[in-house]
Amino acid sequence: MIVAEQKSLDEIKTMLAPYQKVLIVGCGTCVTVCFAGGEKEVAILASALRMATGLEGNPKQIMEATVQRQCEYEYNEAIADKLKEVDVVLSLACGIGVQTMNEQFPEMLTLPGLNTTFLGQPTEQGVWVERCQACGNCVLATTGGICPIARCSKSLLNGPCGGSQGGKCEIDPDVPCAWQQIYDRMKALGRLEALLEVAEAKDWRTSRDGGPRKIVREDLRLEK
Amino acid sequence: MTQETVSAVSPATTQENAVEPFEPDITAFTCIYCGFMSADTAGALHFSYPANVKLLKLPCTGKVDVEYILKAFENGADGVYVVACPLGNCHHLEGNVRATKRVAYAKKLLDEIGLGGERVEIFYMSGGQGGAFAEAARTMTERIRKMGPNPLRKILNRC
Shortest CB distance from B152 goes to which of A9, A43, A55? Predict the structure, then answer.
């Protein structure tokens, strides 16, 4: 899922300073699951903003809404009428949702209430870790299902490096060495010999190095 | 125990009201086990405690939510506290541990908002500790009296 966390109340207040009527729009998908921008987080932030701005002597009108999936036009149509009542939208979706709102409703500015952080997995309640960097050319088949791009601090394809100490990465004793994990996993699978094969330099054009990415599926397009 | 019962066992508070210009409006979230039972025990044993405490029963303090706490303040509460089972004795195992963390988070938020994190607290007691319940009510009432009324009451026109 896309993992995000809320910006500080101070930063949000500063962003909203020029506006009086604000609609906070949450998203019912990834950011709901990571407790950053779902219906409950919208309610908490709305309440906090009403109180904080009230105490500062300029109580803002804060309205609340949550759509099922803010990165798709169809779902955002449900709140189109509410936009007429406000000066600005504060989105509690990921950066994709914020941009979708701005594209779909160009007359209304939608501000980001979250910092979109990474593609990750909840390893326990309240803990999320990065698992994928969307490099566009998955190597998990050769690394025992553990991603060296996202989980190795250097994104090495032929690890580990000399910074691997006792199974931990040199950047932080709490960060596991991804290549130690890959080695352990491949050993458990009885496929250690596969690691003797040197991975060639990765073609990063499928990642961000090739510029903004786009997928077109002609079989799915409705336009002729 | 209803609010009327609380008032009935707190005759001293009425006299206090006459001389005290500010009587805090306090919301207390209790679980249906030790939390509420301690309030009941306080009533049964005729322990006097401030009548300005409004009790809200939850199935477990694990149901306490930051949203509930903020809404209470937004609607004019001067103080909020949670009455939970003693740590290690939650009837749902860890509900009181979760409530503790949520109260801590709410304190941080209230500081950021500018209301003051000291306006929210959590107390732990068993069902037989009516005296502890009364003491918690007095502690919070005194603390909030010193802090003054929730300034949002006037600003947001909450009664």
Answer: A55
